C-alpha cells in the first residue's frame, strides 16, 4: 500500500477544538468508531436520547455509499472518484470499496477539517496500482476543489462525484444546487453524481432532534425535502429506483423489507 497524497490548505493550520462537538466526530461515534472526544459522545448521546434512529441512518448511509461504489466500479466501469465531505475514515471508505474491486481506481477525498486531515494521512492508503489523495478544501469552493483534484484525477475521463451528507451543511438550497452544477459541469459525459442527505417530511422525531442539534452550537445540518434532494440531479439521468430512502436503493439480496428512513439518495449519469 502506498501513502496518500495531501494537498495542504488553510485548514491544515487550524487547531482541533475538543471543547465543541463536531459533526464528523459525532457521525464517527454513531458508526461505532473511536475517533471522537467526550464532548462528541455527549452530543451524540443527547441526540439519540431524542431520536435513537440516527444510528440506523448513519449506518444505512454508509451501506448506501458502498452499494453505489460497487455499482459504479462493477457495472459502470468508473475508475475515478471525487469524494467531497470525506469525514473521518471508518469502514468501507470509498477507496477501500473501489480498489477492492478495481485496484487501479483513483480517489480524491476533500474535507477542510484538521482532524480529518490528520487521520487521512494515517489511514487513507492506496493500492500500488491506484492512487488516493486528500485535498484540504471546502465544497463551498468548487473551482479550487476541481483544480486540486486534477492533480490526481484525469477530469477529461468519466468521474464519480460523491456528495454524502455534505449538502445539508449548505443552508441555502439554491446555493447547494449551484455548487453541484458547477462541479458536474466540469466533468465529462459518462460521469456520475451520488448524493444522499437527511430528509425532512418523513420522521418528526428526526426533525425535532436535528433542530435541537442545530441550536447546540455545532455546525448546523439542514434536512431537505425529498423534492429538494431530487433537484440536485436536474439535467442528469437518474438510475432506477430514483431518489428513495437509502435503505431501498438497490438493497442487498438478503435485505428484505428494508425500512423507510429519513435519509434519501440517488445516483445519476451525466448524458
Molecular structure report:
- By secondary structure, this protein is α/β, with parallel strands linked by helices.
- The chain contains 9 helices and 10 strands.
- Strands 1, 2, 3, 4, 5, 6, 7, 8, 9 and 10 form a 10-stranded mixed β-sheet that branches.
- Strand 3 (106-111), helix 5 and strand 4 form a beta-alpha-beta unit.
- Helix 1 packs across helix 2 (38-50), helix 2 runs antiparallel to helix 8 and helix 3 packs parallel to helix 4 (94-101).
- It is globular.
- It starts with a strand and ends with a strand.
- Mean pLDDT is 89; it is low at 8-13.
Summarize the structure.
The protein is an alpha/beta fold. It has helices at 23-30, 38-50, 54-74, 94-101, 114-123, 142-149, 173-185, 204-214, 226-231, and strands spanning 5-7, 80-84, 106-111, 131-136, 160-164, 192-200, 224-225, 237-238, 244-245, 263-269.
Binned, the helix content reads 25-40%
Shape: globular
The percentage of residues in β strands lies in 15-25%
Kindly report how far apart the N and C termini lie: 35 Å
Count of helix runs: 9
**Structural Rg:** 17 Å
Unreliable spans are 8-13
Structural class: alpha/beta
H-E string: EHHHEHEHEHEHEHEHEEE
Largest sheet: 10 strands, mixed
| Number of strand segments | 10
Mean of the pLDDT scores?
Answer: 89
Key structural traits:
271 residues, alpha/beta, 10-stranded mixed sheet, 9 helices, 36% helix, globular
Amino acid at each position: 500500500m502506498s501513502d496518500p497524497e495531501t494537498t495542504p490548505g488553510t485548514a491544515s493550520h487550524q487547531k482541533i477544538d475538543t471543547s465543541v462537538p463536531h459533526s464528523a466526530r459525532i457521525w464517527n461515534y454513531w458508526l461505532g468508531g473511536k475517533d471522537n472526544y467526550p464532548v462528541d459522545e455527549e452530543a451524540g448521546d443527547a441526540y439519540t436520547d431524542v431520536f435513537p434512529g440516527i444510528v440506523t441512518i448513519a449506518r444505512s448511509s454508509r451501506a448506501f455509499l458502498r452499494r453505489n461504489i460497487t455499482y459504479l466500479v462493477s457495472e459502470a466501469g468508473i475508475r475515478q472518484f471525487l469524494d467531497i465531505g470525506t469525514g473521518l475514515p471508518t469502514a468501507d471508505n470509498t477507496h477501500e470499496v473501489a480498489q477492492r474491486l478495481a485496484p487501479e481506481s483513483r480517489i480524491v477525498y476533500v474535507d477542510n477539517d484538521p482532524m480529518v486531515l490528520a487521520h487521512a494521512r494515517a489511514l487513507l492508503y492506496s493500492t500500488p496500482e491506484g492512487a488516493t489523495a486528500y485535498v484540504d478544501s471546502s465544497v463551498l469552493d468548487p473551482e479550487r476543489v476541481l483544480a486540486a483534484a486534477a492533480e490526481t484525477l484525469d477530469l477529461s475521463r468519466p468521474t464519480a462525484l460523491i456528495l454524502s451528507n455534505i449538502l445539508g451543511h449548505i443552508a441555502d438550497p439554491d446555493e447547494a444546487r449551484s455548487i453541484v452544477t458547477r462541479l458536474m459541469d466540469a466533468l465529462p459525459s459518462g460521469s456520475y453524481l451520488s448524493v444522499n442527505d437527511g430528509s425532512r417530511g418523513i420522521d418528526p422525531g428526526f426533525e425535532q432532534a436535528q433542530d435541537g442539534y442545530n441550536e447546540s452550537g455545532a455546525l448546523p445540518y439542514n434536512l431537505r425535502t425529498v423534492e429538494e434532494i431530487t433537484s440536485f440531479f436536474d439535467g442528469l439521468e437518474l438510475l432506477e429506483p430514483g431518489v428513495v430512502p437509502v435503505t431501498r436503493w438497490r438493497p442487498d439480496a438478503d435485505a428484505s423489507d428494508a425500512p423507510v428512513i429519513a435519509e434519501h439518495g440517488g445516483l445519476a449519469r451525466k448524458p
